[in-house]
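quick one if you have a minute, typing this from the bus. theres a chain ive been looking at and ive put its sequence and its fold in token form underneath. please have a look and point out which stretches look like helix strand or loop to you. anything you notice is useful, everything is just below.

***
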Amino acid sequence: MASPTYYNCNVCGFYTQGNFSQIGYILNKNGERVFVPHAWNGKVDGRMHQTVCLDCLHQFKLDFDADELKCTSCFSTNIVRTHETEKKVCPKCKEGIILKKVDRYITI
């Protein structure tokens, strides 16, 4: 099991969860996206990425190859994959720096 990855501001605490990146999906008979396990060996129809809007801070999942590249809340095009916020100025407080944090845990 993968360790959870977060990107946190070192000043205000704003964070994004970064695990959800490159997660494959297939389309069912109704055209709906169904996520497949990480170890999926079959064909996928697309890949989703955890995304953050740098204007309204909304976090959502987006297929950068198939979806319209805009925020699903405010419709801004000022969006990035969450891992792209690492070592950048915090989009919320504009003072802190976003740092990567990986929580390690053991599964049995």
